[in-house]
Amino acid sequence: MAVNETSGETRVEQHQLPYISASLPGIGGRLRARPEHFIVEEIPLYEPCGEGEHTFLWITKRDMTSTYVRDRLARIFNIPPQDVGMAGLKDRHAITTQAFSVPRIPPEEAIRRVQEAFPEVHVHWAKRHRNKLKPGHLLGNRFRITVVDTVPDAWERAQAIVTFLRRTGVPNYYGPQRFGHGGANVQRGRAALTGRGPRDRWLRRFLISAYQAFLFNRYLAQRVQDGLFTRLLVGDIAKKADTGGLFVVQDTVAEQPRYDRGEIHFTGPMYGYKMWMAEAEAGRRERAILEQEGLSLDVFRRAKVKGTRRLGRLWLADLQVARDAEGHLVFSFSLPKGAFATVVMREFMKVPSLEMGEMEEEPAILEPEP
After folding, report:
1. Which one is catalytic: 63, 71, 83, 91?
2. What's the CATH architecture for 2-17+170-314?
3. Which of 22, 166, 323, 327 is the most buried (most CB within 10 A)?
Protein backbone atom coordinates (compact mmCIF):
# COMPACT_ATOMS: atom_id res chain seq x y z
CA MET A 1 0.00 0.00 0.00
CA ALA A 2 1.56 3.28 -0.99
CA VAL A 3 1.26 6.88 -2.07
CA ASN A 4 2.34 8.02 -5.53
CA GLU A 5 4.96 10.62 -4.62
CA THR A 6 4.69 12.53 -7.89
CA SER A 7 0.92 12.95 -7.98
CA GLY A 8 0.02 12.64 -4.31
CA GLU A 9 -2.47 9.98 -5.35
CA THR A 10 -3.21 7.16 -2.96
CA ARG A 11 -3.09 3.70 -4.47
CA VAL A 12 -3.78 0.32 -2.95
CA GLU A 13 -1.13 -2.37 -3.33
CA GLN A 14 -2.60 -5.15 -1.23
CA HIS A 15 0.10 -7.61 -2.25
CA GLN A 16 2.65 -5.52 -0.35
CA LEU A 17 1.05 -6.23 3.00
CA PRO A 18 3.79 -8.18 4.77
CA TYR A 19 3.20 -11.66 6.14
CA ILE A 20 3.95 -12.19 9.80
CA SER A 21 4.95 -15.76 8.82
CA ALA A 22 7.10 -14.65 5.87
CA SER A 23 9.92 -16.99 6.91
CA LEU A 24 7.71 -20.05 6.37
CA PRO A 25 6.71 -21.32 2.88
CA GLY A 26 3.03 -21.39 1.99
CA ILE A 27 0.81 -24.35 1.14
CA GLY A 28 -0.63 -22.87 -2.08
CA GLY A 29 -4.07 -24.13 -3.03
CA ARG A 30 -7.56 -22.83 -3.71
CA LEU A 31 -10.51 -21.84 -1.56
CA ARG A 32 -14.25 -22.30 -2.14
CA ALA A 33 -14.06 -25.18 -4.59
CA ARG A 34 -17.53 -25.95 -3.18
CA PRO A 35 -19.72 -24.04 -0.70
CA GLU A 36 -19.12 -26.89 1.77
CA HIS A 37 -15.47 -25.87 1.81
CA PHE A 38 -16.22 -22.56 3.50
CA ILE A 39 -18.41 -22.91 6.60
CA VAL A 40 -19.16 -19.93 8.85
CA GLU A 41 -21.18 -19.78 12.05
CA GLU A 42 -22.01 -16.54 13.81
CA ILE A 43 -21.06 -16.19 17.49
CA PRO A 44 -23.98 -14.25 19.05
CA LEU A 45 -23.45 -11.31 21.36
CA TYR A 46 -26.39 -12.52 23.43
CA GLU A 47 -29.09 -15.19 23.42
CA PRO A 48 -32.76 -14.27 22.93
CA CYS A 49 -34.43 -13.95 26.33
CA GLY A 50 -37.67 -15.75 25.43
CA GLU A 51 -40.04 -12.77 25.56
CA GLY A 52 -40.69 -9.63 23.56
CA GLU A 53 -42.19 -8.61 20.21
CA HIS A 54 -39.25 -9.71 18.04
CA THR A 55 -38.57 -13.29 16.97
CA PHE A 56 -34.99 -14.43 16.34
CA LEU A 57 -34.49 -17.13 13.69
CA TRP A 58 -31.27 -19.19 13.64
CA ILE A 59 -30.84 -20.03 9.95
CA THR A 60 -28.34 -22.00 7.88
CA LYS A 61 -28.10 -21.06 4.20
CA ARG A 62 -26.05 -22.35 1.28
CA ASP A 63 -24.69 -20.20 -1.54
CA MET A 64 -26.85 -17.19 -0.59
CA THR A 65 -26.01 -13.69 0.58
CA SER A 66 -27.38 -12.43 3.87
CA THR A 67 -29.24 -9.65 2.09
CA TYR A 68 -30.94 -12.16 -0.21
CA VAL A 69 -32.22 -14.09 2.82
CA ARG A 70 -33.30 -10.85 4.49
CA ASP A 71 -35.31 -9.85 1.42
CA ARG A 72 -36.93 -13.28 1.17
CA LEU A 73 -37.95 -13.13 4.83
CA ALA A 74 -39.42 -9.67 4.26
CA ARG A 75 -41.60 -11.03 1.43
CA ILE A 76 -42.66 -14.08 3.44
CA PHE A 77 -43.85 -11.94 6.36
CA ASN A 78 -45.02 -8.99 4.23
CA ILE A 79 -42.81 -6.46 6.02
CA PRO A 80 -40.26 -3.90 4.76
CA PRO A 81 -36.73 -5.35 4.39
CA GLN A 82 -35.44 -2.82 6.93
CA ASP A 83 -37.68 -4.42 9.56
CA VAL A 84 -35.72 -7.68 9.27
CA GLY A 85 -32.76 -7.56 11.62
CA MET A 86 -29.34 -9.18 11.23
CA ALA A 87 -26.05 -8.71 13.02
CA GLY A 88 -23.60 -9.13 10.14
CA LEU A 89 -23.16 -9.99 6.48
CA LYS A 90 -21.90 -13.43 5.54
CA ASP A 91 -20.21 -14.80 2.45
CA ARG A 92 -22.26 -16.02 -0.48
CA HIS A 93 -20.12 -18.93 -1.71
CA ALA A 94 -20.30 -20.75 1.60
CA ILE A 95 -22.53 -22.51 4.08
CA THR A 96 -23.30 -19.96 6.76
CA THR A 97 -25.37 -19.94 9.92
CA GLN A 98 -26.59 -16.69 11.42
CA ALA A 99 -29.49 -15.03 13.21
CA PHE A 100 -32.24 -12.91 11.70
CA SER A 101 -35.07 -11.18 13.53
CA VAL A 102 -38.62 -10.36 12.48
CA PRO A 103 -41.21 -8.33 14.41
CA ARG A 104 -44.60 -9.41 15.70
CA ILE A 105 -44.48 -13.02 14.45
CA PRO A 106 -44.85 -15.88 16.98
CA PRO A 107 -41.87 -18.29 16.87
CA GLU A 108 -43.90 -21.37 15.87
CA GLU A 109 -45.59 -19.47 13.05
CA ALA A 110 -42.26 -18.00 11.92
CA ILE A 111 -40.68 -21.46 11.58
CA ARG A 112 -43.70 -22.87 9.74
CA ARG A 113 -43.96 -20.02 7.24
CA VAL A 114 -40.23 -20.01 6.46
CA GLN A 115 -40.10 -23.79 6.01
CA GLU A 116 -43.11 -23.69 3.67
CA ALA A 117 -42.08 -20.68 1.58
CA PHE A 118 -38.28 -20.92 1.75
CA PRO A 119 -37.27 -24.61 1.91
CA GLU A 120 -33.75 -23.84 0.61
CA VAL A 121 -32.73 -22.71 4.12
CA HIS A 122 -32.83 -24.60 7.41
CA VAL A 123 -34.35 -22.97 10.49
CA HIS A 124 -32.79 -24.49 13.62
CA TRP A 125 -34.95 -22.59 16.11
CA ALA A 126 -36.98 -19.45 16.70
CA LYS A 127 -37.16 -17.56 20.00
CA ARG A 128 -38.61 -14.27 21.21
CA HIS A 129 -36.54 -11.26 22.25
CA ARG A 130 -37.27 -7.68 23.31
CA ASN A 131 -35.28 -5.86 20.63
CA LYS A 132 -34.54 -6.12 16.94
CA LEU A 133 -31.23 -7.71 15.95
CA LYS A 134 -28.96 -4.87 14.78
CA PRO A 135 -25.63 -4.58 12.93
CA GLY A 136 -22.77 -5.39 15.26
CA HIS A 137 -24.83 -7.54 17.64
CA LEU A 138 -22.35 -10.41 17.45
CA LEU A 139 -19.08 -11.38 19.09
CA GLY A 140 -17.53 -12.87 15.97
CA ASN A 141 -17.60 -15.89 13.68
CA ARG A 142 -16.36 -19.49 13.67
CA PHE A 143 -14.79 -20.73 10.44
CA ARG A 144 -14.15 -24.16 8.98
CA ILE A 145 -12.24 -23.69 5.72
CA THR A 146 -11.07 -26.39 3.32
CA VAL A 147 -8.15 -25.79 0.95
CA VAL A 148 -7.72 -27.91 -2.19
CA ASP A 149 -4.89 -28.29 -4.74
CA THR A 150 -2.14 -27.63 -2.20
CA VAL A 151 1.58 -28.40 -2.64
CA PRO A 152 2.78 -31.97 -1.92
CA ASP A 153 4.22 -31.19 1.52
CA ALA A 154 1.34 -28.90 2.54
CA TRP A 155 0.59 -30.83 5.76
CA GLU A 156 4.06 -30.27 7.17
CA ARG A 157 4.06 -26.63 6.07
CA ALA A 158 0.62 -25.99 7.57
CA GLN A 159 1.60 -27.49 10.92
CA ALA A 160 4.67 -25.26 11.09
CA ILE A 161 2.58 -22.16 10.34
CA VAL A 162 -0.05 -23.15 12.93
CA THR A 163 2.64 -23.42 15.60
CA PHE A 164 4.08 -20.06 14.57
CA LEU A 165 0.75 -18.18 14.46
CA ARG A 166 -0.40 -19.54 17.80
CA ARG A 167 2.64 -17.87 19.28
CA THR A 168 2.54 -14.55 17.38
CA GLY A 169 -1.06 -13.99 16.35
CA VAL A 170 -1.98 -12.53 12.95
CA PRO A 171 -2.07 -8.88 11.81
CA ASN A 172 -5.71 -7.79 11.78
CA TYR A 173 -5.53 -6.33 8.28
CA TYR A 174 -8.64 -5.39 6.36
CA GLY A 175 -9.06 -7.77 3.45
CA PRO A 176 -8.92 -6.52 -0.16
CA GLN A 177 -12.71 -6.92 -0.41
CA ARG A 178 -13.00 -3.76 1.68
CA PHE A 179 -11.32 -1.62 -0.96
CA GLY A 180 -13.28 -2.47 -4.10
CA HIS A 181 -11.95 -3.44 -7.51
CA GLY A 182 -8.44 -2.11 -7.93
CA GLY A 183 -8.74 -0.16 -4.69
CA ALA A 184 -11.32 2.24 -6.15
CA ASN A 185 -13.06 2.68 -2.81
CA VAL A 186 -9.88 4.10 -1.30
CA GLN A 187 -9.54 6.81 -3.94
CA ARG A 188 -13.21 7.68 -3.66
CA GLY A 189 -13.02 7.59 0.13
CA ARG A 190 -10.20 10.11 0.24
CA ALA A 191 -12.18 12.37 -2.08
CA ALA A 192 -15.25 12.04 0.14
CA LEU A 193 -13.19 12.84 3.23
CA THR A 194 -11.88 16.04 1.66
CA GLY A 195 -15.32 17.17 0.49
CA ARG A 196 -15.20 16.01 -3.11
CA GLY A 197 -17.17 12.79 -2.78
CA PRO A 198 -20.79 11.73 -3.37
CA ARG A 199 -23.64 13.47 -1.61
CA ASP A 200 -25.44 10.28 -0.66
CA ARG A 201 -24.82 10.02 3.08
CA TRP A 202 -24.57 6.24 3.35
CA LEU A 203 -22.28 5.89 0.32
CA ARG A 204 -20.09 8.74 1.53
CA ARG A 205 -19.76 7.13 4.94
CA PHE A 206 -18.98 3.74 3.40
CA LEU A 207 -16.25 5.17 1.17
CA ILE A 208 -14.65 7.13 4.00
CA SER A 209 -14.60 3.96 6.09
CA ALA A 210 -12.69 2.25 3.26
CA TYR A 211 -10.10 5.02 3.34
CA GLN A 212 -9.84 4.71 7.13
CA ALA A 213 -9.27 0.98 6.64
CA PHE A 214 -6.53 1.71 4.11
CA LEU A 215 -4.75 3.99 6.59
CA PHE A 216 -5.09 1.36 9.31
CA ASN A 217 -3.53 -1.26 7.02
CA ARG A 218 -0.65 1.10 6.29
CA TYR A 219 0.01 1.58 9.98
CA LEU A 220 -0.14 -2.14 10.68
CA ALA A 221 1.99 -3.09 7.66
CA GLN A 222 4.68 -0.61 8.69
CA ARG A 223 4.70 -2.07 12.18
CA VAL A 224 5.11 -5.61 10.83
CA GLN A 225 7.86 -4.51 8.42
CA ASP A 226 9.76 -2.84 11.26
CA GLY A 227 9.64 -5.96 13.42
CA LEU A 228 7.33 -4.34 15.98
CA PHE A 229 4.32 -6.64 15.73
CA THR A 230 5.39 -9.07 18.44
CA ARG A 231 6.18 -6.46 21.05
CA LEU A 232 4.46 -3.53 22.69
CA LEU A 233 5.58 0.06 22.28
CA VAL A 234 5.57 2.78 24.88
CA GLY A 235 2.38 4.76 24.34
CA ASP A 236 0.43 1.92 22.72
CA ILE A 237 -3.30 1.91 23.42
CA ALA A 238 -3.68 -1.70 24.50
CA LYS A 239 -6.90 -3.70 24.79
CA LYS A 240 -7.60 -6.29 27.48
CA ALA A 241 -8.71 -9.59 25.97
CA ASP A 242 -11.08 -10.48 28.80
CA THR A 243 -12.89 -7.19 29.40
CA GLY A 244 -12.18 -5.14 26.28
CA GLY A 245 -10.87 -2.27 28.40
CA LEU A 246 -8.31 0.11 26.86
CA PHE A 247 -5.25 1.58 28.57
CA VAL A 248 -2.00 3.34 27.69
CA VAL A 249 1.11 1.19 27.88
CA GLN A 250 3.63 2.98 30.09
CA ASP A 251 5.91 0.12 31.16
CA THR A 252 6.62 -2.26 28.29
CA VAL A 253 8.80 -4.53 30.43
CA ALA A 254 5.90 -5.13 32.82
CA GLU A 255 3.23 -5.51 30.11
CA GLN A 256 5.13 -7.58 27.51
CA PRO A 257 4.58 -10.95 29.29
CA ARG A 258 0.82 -10.32 29.24
CA TYR A 259 1.08 -9.51 25.54
CA ASP A 260 3.02 -12.72 24.88
CA ARG A 261 0.27 -14.73 26.60
CA GLY A 262 -2.48 -13.10 24.55
CA GLU A 263 -4.02 -11.33 27.54
CA ILE A 264 -3.65 -7.89 25.97
CA HIS A 265 -3.20 -6.64 22.39
CA PHE A 266 -2.16 -3.35 20.85
CA THR A 267 -4.72 -1.39 18.88
CA GLY A 268 -4.27 0.64 15.72
CA PRO A 269 -5.80 3.90 14.49
CA MET A 270 -9.09 4.23 12.67
CA TYR A 271 -8.42 7.93 12.25
CA GLY A 272 -10.95 10.53 13.30
CA TYR A 273 -11.12 13.76 15.27
CA LYS A 274 -12.25 12.02 18.47
CA MET A 275 -9.94 9.01 18.17
CA TRP A 276 -7.82 8.23 21.23
CA MET A 277 -4.36 8.86 19.79
CA ALA A 278 -1.49 6.71 21.03
CA GLU A 279 1.32 8.42 22.91
CA ALA A 280 5.13 8.53 22.83
CA GLU A 281 6.73 6.16 20.26
CA ALA A 282 3.42 4.57 19.22
CA GLY A 283 1.83 7.99 18.79
CA ARG A 284 4.68 9.19 16.59
CA ARG A 285 4.12 6.24 14.28
CA GLU A 286 0.39 6.99 14.05
CA ARG A 287 0.97 10.65 13.26
CA ALA A 288 3.55 9.71 10.63
CA ILE A 289 0.91 7.90 8.56
CA LEU A 290 -1.21 11.05 8.40
CA GLU A 291 1.84 13.14 7.50
CA GLN A 292 2.70 10.76 4.66
CA GLU A 293 -0.82 11.21 3.33
CA GLY A 294 -0.65 14.98 3.69
CA LEU A 295 -3.54 15.02 6.17
CA SER A 296 -4.32 16.29 9.64
CA LEU A 297 -7.10 15.41 12.07
CA ASP A 298 -8.83 18.66 11.08
CA VAL A 299 -9.99 17.12 7.80
CA PHE A 300 -11.74 14.37 9.78
CA ARG A 301 -13.38 16.99 11.98
CA ARG A 302 -14.72 18.85 8.96
CA ALA A 303 -16.07 15.56 7.59
CA LYS A 304 -17.56 14.73 11.04
CA VAL A 305 -15.65 11.44 11.21
CA LYS A 306 -15.08 10.58 14.88
CA GLY A 307 -12.72 7.62 14.49
CA THR A 308 -12.02 4.75 16.86
CA ARG A 309 -9.40 2.12 17.76
CA ARG A 310 -9.16 -1.28 16.03
CA LEU A 311 -7.57 -4.43 17.36
CA GLY A 312 -4.13 -4.77 15.81
CA ARG A 313 -3.62 -8.47 16.43
CA LEU A 314 -5.85 -11.52 16.00
CA TRP A 315 -5.12 -14.10 18.69
CA LEU A 316 -5.87 -17.57 17.33
CA ALA A 317 -6.10 -19.68 20.47
CA ASP A 318 -8.39 -22.24 18.79
CA LEU A 319 -6.53 -22.45 15.45
CA GLN A 320 -6.35 -26.04 14.19
CA VAL A 321 -5.60 -27.89 10.98
CA ALA A 322 -6.76 -31.40 10.05
CA ARG A 323 -7.23 -33.59 6.99
CA ASP A 324 -10.61 -34.57 5.58
CA ALA A 325 -11.49 -37.90 3.96
CA GLU A 326 -10.17 -36.69 0.60
CA GLY A 327 -6.86 -35.56 2.06
CA HIS A 328 -7.63 -31.84 1.83
CA LEU A 329 -6.46 -29.55 4.62
CA VAL A 330 -9.24 -28.19 6.83
CA PHE A 331 -8.60 -25.12 9.00
CA SER A 332 -10.80 -24.12 11.93
CA PHE A 333 -10.61 -20.94 13.99
CA SER A 334 -12.71 -18.15 15.49
CA LEU A 335 -12.40 -14.43 14.80
CA PRO A 336 -13.92 -11.35 16.43
CA LYS A 337 -16.43 -9.29 14.48
CA GLY A 338 -14.90 -7.08 11.82
CA ALA A 339 -12.00 -9.47 11.16
CA PHE A 340 -11.43 -11.16 7.80
CA ALA A 341 -10.83 -14.90 7.40
CA THR A 342 -8.73 -14.05 4.34
CA VAL A 343 -6.01 -12.46 6.47
CA VAL A 344 -5.57 -15.75 8.32
CA MET A 345 -5.67 -17.94 5.22
CA ARG A 346 -3.20 -15.75 3.31
CA GLU A 347 -0.57 -16.57 5.94
CA PHE A 348 -1.02 -20.25 5.10
CA MET A 349 -1.53 -20.13 1.35
CA LYS A 350 0.63 -17.22 0.19
CA VAL A 351 -1.02 -17.11 -3.24
CA PRO A 352 -1.83 -14.07 -5.44
CA SER A 353 -5.58 -14.80 -5.57
CA LEU A 354 -6.06 -13.88 -1.90
CA GLU A 355 -4.08 -10.66 -2.28
CA MET A 356 -6.15 -9.43 -5.23
CA GLY A 357 -9.55 -9.90 -3.64
CA GLU A 358 -10.74 -12.91 -5.62
CA MET A 359 -12.59 -14.17 -2.53
CA GLU A 360 -15.85 -12.31 -2.90
CA GLU A 361 -17.55 -11.25 0.30
CA GLU A 362 -20.48 -8.94 0.87
CA PRO A 363 -19.66 -5.33 1.77
CA ALA A 364 -19.45 -4.76 5.50
CA ILE A 365 -22.42 -3.40 7.40
CA LEU A 366 -21.41 -0.05 8.86
CA GLU A 367 -21.74 -0.01 12.60
CA PRO A 368 -22.33 3.12 14.68
CA GLU A 369 -19.08 4.57 15.94
CA PRO A 370 -18.49 4.19 19.69
Report:
1. 91
2. 2-Layer Sandwich (3.30)
3. 166
